[in-house]
Amino acid sequence: MPNNSCKSKRMKKYISCAFFFVLSLAHSQKTIHVFVAFCDHINQGIVPVPESLGNGQNPTTNLYWGALYGVKTHFKRSEDWIFLTSTTSENPKILERVLFKHKNSETFLLADAYDGKYIKEAITHFLEASAGNNPQEITINDRRLPFGGNSNLVSYIGHNGLMEFDVDGHFNPKNNNKRDAIILACISENYFLSHIRQTQASPLIWTTGLMAPEAYTLKWAIDGWIRNETDDEIREHAAKAYHSYQKCGLNAAKRLLVTGF
Q1: Which residue from 95, 85, 86 is spatially nearest to 122, judged by alpha carbons?
Q2: 3-class DSSP assignment, residue 112
Q3: How far apart are CA 77 and CA 67, in angstroms?
C-alpha cells in the first residue's frame, strides 16, 4: 500500500518547486516597449529623404522600420533576438506592432510603428509610458507580458517632433517603479528634458545633437541593459554602435550619446 503521507509530502514539494520556478521567472523577466514614429517627409519638418524611406504610411520601406537599419528589420536580422509575431493594433495610428524575445534571457521587446503623420501621438504615448501610465498586456503562448507603462524600459525612435510642437498628456508618475528611457532623436536631451523630469523616468540614453535614429544604437544599448551593466557602460555600447555604423569617430559618438541628467 502506498504511503499517503509520503505522497502528500512529494505533492507539496512539487507545488513548492513550481511556485518558486514561476516566481523566479517573473523576477528575471524584463519587457521593453519601443515607440517608433515613421520618417515622413510630407508630414514632418525633416530634411527630405528618398520617397520610399520617407513614406510615413509604408511599413515595408520606412527608414525607421522596414529599411535595413529600421527597428523591425534590424532586430529580425539579429542573431540575439527571436521574432515572435507581427500584428495590427486596435489603435489605427499604429500601422504594425512586432514582438521579439531575446535569445539568451527572459527579455521581451514590443515595437509599435506609428503612421508618420501621428508623430505627436507617438511621442505622447512614449512619455505617458515613461510615467507608468497606459499599461498594456500582450499574451503569447498563454504568457502575459506587461508593456506600456508597466515596461521596464521604454524607448522613442524617430524625428524630434518637440522641435515643432509641444505635447500634453498624463506625464505625472503613476508609481515609484523604476523605468529606464532611451530617446533616439535629434537633440533629445534638450527638448525632452522637462518631460522626462516630470515622468521621473531614468534617461538611459539620449542625445546632445543631430543624429540618425537607427536601430543599431538601440540594439547595442539594450545588450548592455539586459546584462545589468552600469549606465556608463551602456552608453559606451551605444556610442560604439553609432561610430561603427556612422564612422563619426568614437569621441564624437560619446559627445552625442549621453546618459543621465
Answers
A1: 95
A2: strand
A3: 12
pLDDT, tens digit (0-9, with 9 covering 90-100), for 57-104: 999 999 999 999 999 999 999 999 999 999 888 899 999 999 999 999
Q: What is the pTM of this model?
A: 0.89
Contact between 82 and 100 (Cβ < 8 Å): yes
In contact, 255 and 230? CB cutoff 8 Å: no
Pairing mode, strands 94-102 and 81-87: antiparallel
Tell me the per-residue pLDDT of 125-143, one tens digit each, with 9 for 90 and over: 999 999 999 999 999 989 9
What is the spatial distance between Cα 253 and Cα 206, in angstroms, rounded to a whole number?
12
* Separation CA 222–CA 32 (nearest Å): 9
CA 155, CA 147: separation in Å to the nearest integer? 12
Q: How far is CA 35 from the centre of its chain?
A: 6
- Kindly list the strands in the beta sheet with 107-114, ordered across the sheet, starting from the edge strand earlier in the chain: 81-87, 94-102, 107-114, 30-37, 153-157, 180-184, 202-207, 257-258
